[in-house]
């Protein structure tokens, strides 16, 4: 009963508590009624069982309806029996009624006589889950368990029996529900089909037509005659229709179900369950619905006697056939003149409808995800031919509307199929492709095939025909067809997709496997062009084309090798393809292609061809070198010396792929070393002065990547590469070139000698000019270069004089973290000059720097903290300024918890500067700077040690900090710092120890840890600061000893 | 006898070498020897290789088996149309076969394809040459339709002056633009591999003799 009630009974969708007045419901209600009414008599024992919860509803019965069995008092009625708690088993206070047993239920129904049905309905409506109330929330399984445990309590046994009875009812009800669907009721698949056929005969284009078109959304018919998918058949659906009426109203999407026909929302968008929700009232049949929805239909249908239709229909069909054959003949006469027309005509012969049916099942369900593209193509072909048929029918100006009617039908019904296919695509094969793409950098747009169905260009049909010939041609014909294919505009997407959609790629790739060189060449020439489309590339890889191309690289024919390499270069634009090339040994073969001898002097025809092979090889390697593993593979295949040789080639078209590959590979350390040792820097520098911007860009980019290494930087200078780099800064229009050039300048300027050269070439002025209106990748490099140049004091003046500080400060507001790191560094460098600092202070840049301490990137944090140091050092009223940043000091102290060493060092340095101001020192002491610094003392990092010691030295000067440091145990580690090899650490440590030694207990600790010996050594240092600090510290220790001695001997 | 014959052949070779491109004397000599060897007993009949013999050579040496085409090739070799290929025609033919330049090959192929020798490749000639190049679809009502289509495609591609047939000038321009179309209407030049193996075989012996 439960299942039937929750699933089969049709609840009114508007009001929650009403049963719909449908035949199915009626049938089920009467079954329930019968069951309940007879229950008391049939199963007297079970009927006495008290419900866990009472059934309550609003009844129409009145006290007067009840008889002797019940206690009637005024309006209310009570049963004589009551349950354990003393509640009466039936209780009526009109209109509310409460019932506890089946006995009373059946009594009640017998009493209510003609109102029985109403009572049951009301009862079920009020108690949506009666089973739960009767037997409690337990399921059958639970009951069984209890039953076993309780050793058959009498009550339990009764419960079980009742449950069984109810289950029987449930089964009965379900049978009714199912029976309703299968029964030849008012609406059956056959009836609907008949009606649809009838309606179709009303369609047409003439004035007298009643409807524009009628079509099914699916052409596939299941064995039971339904067209709806099975899960919808469950709900009684037979099929869905799309009917276009002659009225202005939009197309009607109609669902026919066993209960009637109704409108639904249509198939727009995804197959959302909502799209099938009932939209209108349920009508008896299609004609009734259409009469209601289409005034035009209603009117015309009265004029034409519907009864006449069946006989008329046959006539229609006959004329159609005649018409069609006539047309076929006619167009065959025209064949010679109009080729595409003919192609279409052929497809008219293919009987698209029949074909569709054949393919439909597999598409529809069986293998949603596995539908091969070939099938799709087939189906689409059929679909298109349907369309073409339509066009043809219109084009031939046939006066008879009948043929059009047919054409219309075939087109529209196929469109329906296509749309259902479209819906499926996102979840199907394409998704799979997408997921396997592993987030490629290149392309990967979703397949747009589905959208291109509307208007197929002429080229499509021509290409389709050519590919058809290609499939059955010997080599002679193949070559002719291939050459003809090449005459299409293959860079145009329509042609590319057409080739793919008609299965041309398969054929072209198969041709690569033949022995015919000319066929291979012809095929590659086409593939090379079409694979500029990402979808085509993907398809080629999926069809295994890359493997074949790689094996062609072994061919003895040079033209073939070239084409294969070029095609590989074009295909290997995404990761999977590049991996494929490597895995099939392509890298090694491509590297071998590079092995030509470009002497330059003797350029014979043969040599020229060798060069071309090498060039194509380099192009392919360039594409492949975007994957790290491939870089390694190229190196192992011995590609570097060969590339180095190509680099000396005089031809630009050879140089670009060679430098491009090198530039790409220079991200690997092994390449950078090789570029340096193989003497390629010289050639790279030479080509900086080329007149080809692409070449210049790649050279600059290679230098950019290589110049991290000091020797490389020096080499660039030695080969006079700095001047051409500075010259290239003037090419401000080409942003890629500019980014590469500024990058190279940045890295080169890490060497001070290079900076001197840049000064000489007035590079700084140009660089400052580039601080505005440039893309970020340029800005990062420009600012980086300025930051490096600013390490030389004279340049600080230059930057200021060119007005470089303001634009630099403006960049502090950015979000690009690489840029922020460089900007803060540059600003920090600028702040070392007092005059610059005035400007920086005036622009409130320190506040901006300080806020960058909040940046999540530790590099930015550190860089900002480093920049803050000179600012505090050189600003006037630095203490006041720092205090003006609300929460600033707390923020910086908190950064001492950072896990990043560089951040810690920079913050220590900044704290050392901040602590110069006593008030600020007091504040940071309050923020707990002492224990935090103390906790860092165990570090082994010399840089951190140095700044930490400095910070400790500064912080000792406030209050009891000196003692606190001693208590926190910083002395012993600090003494150990003296053993570090870095003299800068020594100096800072000595100063810190001197400050700490002002507390006698610290002196004792120091002495215990053997501080005297190293300190005495340091007194002999050449560093005066160190000398003084060490000496003062020793003096303090000595002083303590003297005081102690004096106290003892006194 | 061999000394005299050798002398004779050498003289012939020397003479011929001046007229035939691409071969040096030694190579010409080798080819003459080969010619004589192929001729075998027929030598006394005098004129040279006949059709059967030639077809045999094409079949075995150059792997060209198509009967119609070998006939065409024979006609191209046999310049004086006496149904025999003389020594001179043999060497000249091979010169093109093995080492012809593109221009020479264009001329040669055109001659082969111009079946009636009227200086044009007509649609009918194309149809004749292409008729077996497509797999017949049994379903099609006109089995020749595909071939006709193919002829259309070829004419469209090659007919530069739009007179409906392909002249030598048309053919030349086409091939210059697209080398693949040199043998547009059927294979009439040997494979690179075959050439290499033939040359190796034919020119090897004398070097051993030296």
Automatic annotation (TrEMBL), chain A:
A Pfam family of this chain: Arm
UniProt biased composition (Polar residues): 388-401, 409-423
Basic and acidic residues compositional bias, start-end: 331-360
Protein's GO biological process: animal organ development
Biased composition (Acidic residues): 431-445
Region (Disordered): 318-360, 381-455
Signal peptide stretch: none
ARM repeat ranges per the UniProt record: 544-586, 638-680, 887-929
Name the UniProt record assigns to this protein: Armadillo repeat-containing protein 4
Organism for this UniProt entry: Triplophysa tibetana
UniProtKB/TrEMBL annotation, chain B:
Gene3D superfamilies membership: EF-hand
Molecular function GO labels: calcium ion binding
Residue span(s) of domain EF-hand: 65-100, 101-136, 146-181
InterPro entries associated with the record: EF-hand-dom_pair, EF_Hand_1_Ca_BS, EF_hand_dom, Recoverin
Keyword annotations of the record: Calcium, Metal-binding, Repeat
Presence of keyword Calcium: yes
Entry-linked PANTHER family: CALAXIN (PTHR23055:SF60), CALCIUM BINDING PROTEINS (PTHR23055)
Protein name in UniProt: EF-hand calcium-binding domain-containing protein 1
Native species: Triplophysa tibetana
């Amino acid at each position: 009963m439960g299942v039937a009630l929750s699933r089969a009974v049709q609840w009114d969708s508007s009001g929650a508590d009403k049963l719909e007045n449908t035949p199915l419901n009626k049938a089920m209600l009467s079954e329930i009624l019968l069951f309940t009414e007879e229950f008391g008599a049939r199963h007297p024992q079970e009927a006495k069982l008290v419900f866990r919860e009472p059934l309550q509803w609003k009844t129409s019965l009145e006290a007067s309806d009840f008889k002797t069995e019940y206690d009637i008092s005024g309006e209310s009625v009570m049963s004589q029996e009551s349950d354990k708690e003393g509640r009466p088993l039936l209780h009526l206070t009109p209109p509310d009624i409460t019932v506890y047993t089946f006995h009373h239920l059946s009594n009640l129904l017998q009493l209510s006589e003609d109102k029985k049905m109403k009572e049951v309905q009301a009862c079920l409506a009020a108690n949506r889950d009666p089973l739960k109330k009767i037997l409690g929330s337990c399921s059958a399984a639970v009951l069984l368990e209890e039953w076993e445990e309780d050793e058959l309590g009498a009550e339990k046994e009764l419960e079980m029996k009742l449950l069984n009875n109810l289950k029987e009812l449930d089964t009965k009800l379900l049978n009714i529900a199912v029976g309703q669907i299968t029964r030849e009721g008012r609406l059956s698949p056959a009836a609907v089909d008949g009606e649809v056929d009838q309606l179709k005969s009303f369609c047409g284009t003439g004035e007298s037509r009643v409807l524009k078109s009628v079509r099914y959304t699916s052409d596939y018919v299941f064995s039971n005659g339904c067209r709806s998918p099975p899960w919808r058949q469950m709900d009684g659906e037979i099929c869905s229709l799309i009917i276009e009426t002659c009225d202005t109203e939009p197309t009607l999407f109609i669902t026919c179900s066993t209960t009637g026909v109704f409108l639904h929302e249509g198939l727009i968008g995804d197959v959302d369950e909502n799209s099938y929700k009932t939209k209108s009232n349920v009508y008896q049949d299609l004609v009734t619905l259409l009469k209601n929805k289409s005034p035009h239909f209603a009117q015309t249908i009265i004029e034409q006697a519907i009864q006449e239709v069946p006989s008329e229909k046959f006539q229609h069909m006959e004329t159609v056939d005649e018409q069609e054959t006539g047309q076929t003949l006619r167009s065959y006469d025209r064949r010679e003149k109009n080729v595409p027309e003919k192609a279409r005509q052929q497809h008219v012969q293919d009987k698209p409808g029949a074909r569709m049916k054949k393919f439909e099942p597999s598409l529809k369900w069986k293998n949603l995800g596995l539908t091969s593209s070939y099938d799709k193509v087939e189906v689409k072909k059929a679909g298109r031919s349907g369309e073409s048929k339509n066009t043809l029918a219109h084009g031939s100006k046939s006066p008879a509307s009948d043929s059009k009617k047919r054409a219309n039908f075939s087109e529209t019904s196929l469109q329906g199929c296509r749309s259902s296919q479209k819906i499926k695509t996102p979840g199907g094969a394409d998704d799979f492709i997408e997921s396997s793409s592993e987030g490629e950098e290149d392309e990967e747009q979703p397949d747009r095939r589905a959208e291109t169905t509307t208007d197929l260009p002429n080229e499509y049909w021509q290409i389709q025909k050519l590919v058809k010939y290609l499939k059955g041609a010997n080599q002679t014909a193949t070559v002719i067809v291939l050459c003809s294919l090449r005459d299409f505009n293959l860079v145009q997407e329509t042609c590319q997709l057409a080739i793919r959609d008609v299965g041309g790629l398969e054929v072209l790739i198969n041709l690569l496997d033949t022995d015919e060189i000319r066929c291979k060449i012809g095929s590659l020439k086409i593939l090379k062009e079409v694979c500029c489309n990402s979808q085509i590339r993907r398809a080629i890889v999926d069809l295994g084309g890359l493997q074949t191309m790689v094996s062609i690289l072994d061919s003895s024919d040079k033209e073939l090798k070239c084409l294969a390499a070029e095609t590989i270069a074009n295909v290997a634009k995404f990761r999977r393809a590049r991996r494929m090339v490597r895995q099939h040994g392509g890298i090694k073969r491509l590297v071998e292609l590079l092995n030509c001898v470009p002497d330059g002097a003797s350029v014979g025809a043969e040599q020229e061809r060798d060069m071309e092979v090498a060039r194509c090889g380099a192009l392919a390697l360039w594409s492949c070198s975007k994957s790290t593993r491939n870089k390694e593979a190229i190196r192992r295949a011995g590609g570097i010396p060969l590339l180095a040789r190509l680099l000396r080639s005089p031809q630009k078209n050879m140089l670009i792929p060679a430098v491009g590959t090198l530039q790409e590979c220079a991200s690997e350390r092994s390449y950078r070393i090789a570029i340096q040792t193989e003497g390629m820097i010289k050639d790279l520098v030479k080509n900086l002065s080329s007149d080809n911007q692409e070449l210049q860009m790649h050279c600059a980019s290679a230098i950019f990547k290589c110049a991290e290494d000091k020797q490389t930087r020096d080499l660039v200078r030695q080969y006079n590469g700095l001047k051409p780099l500075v010259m290239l800064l003037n090419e401000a229009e080409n942003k890629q070139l500019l980014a590469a050039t500024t990058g190279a300048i940045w890295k080169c300027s890490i060497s001070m000698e290079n900076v001197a050269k840049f000064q000489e070439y007035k590079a700084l002025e140009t660089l400052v000019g580039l601080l505005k209106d440039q893309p970020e990748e340029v800005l990062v490099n420009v600012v980086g270069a300025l930051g490096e140049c600013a390490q030389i004091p004279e340049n600080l003046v230059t930057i200021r004089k060119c007005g470089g500080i303001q634009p630099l400060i403006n960049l502090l507001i950015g979000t690009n973290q690489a840029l922020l790191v460089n900007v803060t560094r540059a600003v920090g460098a600028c702040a070392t000059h007092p005059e610059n600092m005035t400007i920086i202070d005036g622009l409130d840049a320190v506040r901006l720097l300080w806020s960058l301490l909040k940046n999540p990137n530790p590099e930015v944090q550190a860089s900002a903290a480093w920049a803050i140091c000179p600012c505090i050092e050189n600003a006037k009223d630095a203490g006041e300024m720092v205090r003006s940043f609300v929460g600033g000091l707390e923020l910086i102290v908190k950064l001492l918890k950072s896990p990043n060493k560089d951040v810690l060092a920079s913050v220590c340095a900044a704290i050392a500067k901040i602590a110069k101001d006593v008030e600020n020192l007091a504040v940071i002491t309050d923020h707990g700077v002492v224990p935090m610094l103390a906790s860092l003392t165990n570090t082994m990092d010399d840089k951190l040690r140095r700044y930490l010691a400095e910070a400790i030295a500064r912080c000792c000067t406030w209050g009891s900090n000196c003692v606190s440091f001693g208590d926190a145990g910083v002395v012993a580690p600090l003494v150990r710092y003296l053993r570090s090899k870095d003299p800068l650490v020594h100096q800072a440590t000595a100063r810190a120890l001197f400050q700490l030694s002002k507390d006698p207990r610290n002196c004792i600790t120091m002495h215990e840890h053997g501080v005297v010996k190293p300190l005495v050594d340091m007194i002999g240092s050449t560093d005066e600061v160190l000398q003084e600090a060490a000496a003062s510290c020793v003096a303090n220790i000595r002083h303590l000893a003297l005081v102690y001695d004096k106290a003892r001997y006194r | 006898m061999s000394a005299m014959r050798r002398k004779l052949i050498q003289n012939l070779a020397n003479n011929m070498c001046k007229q035939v491109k691409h071969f040096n004397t030694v190579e010409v000599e080798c080819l003459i020897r080969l010619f004589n060897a192929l001729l075998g007993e027929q030598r006394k009949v005098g004129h040279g290789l006949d059709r059967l013999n030639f077809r045999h050579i094409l079949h075995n040496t150059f792997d060209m088996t198509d009967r119609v085409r070998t006939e065409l090739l024979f006609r191209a070799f046999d310049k004086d149309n006496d149904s025999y290929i003389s020594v001179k025609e043999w060497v000249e033919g091979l010169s093109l076969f093995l080492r012809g330049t593109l221009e020479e090959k264009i001329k040669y192929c055109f001659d082969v394809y111009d079946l009636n020798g009227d200086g044009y490749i007509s649609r009918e000639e194309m149809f004749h040459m292409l008729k077996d190049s497509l797999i017949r679809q049994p379903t099609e009502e006109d089995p020749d339709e595909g071939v006709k289509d193919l002829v259309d495609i070829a004419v469209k591609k090659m007919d530069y002056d739009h007179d409906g047939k392909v002249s030598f000038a048309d053919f030349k321009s086409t091939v210059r633009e697209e080398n693949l179309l040199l043998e547009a209407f059927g294979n009439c030049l040997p494979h690179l591999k075959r050439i290499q193996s033939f040359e190796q075989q034919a020119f090897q012996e004398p070097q051993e003799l030296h």
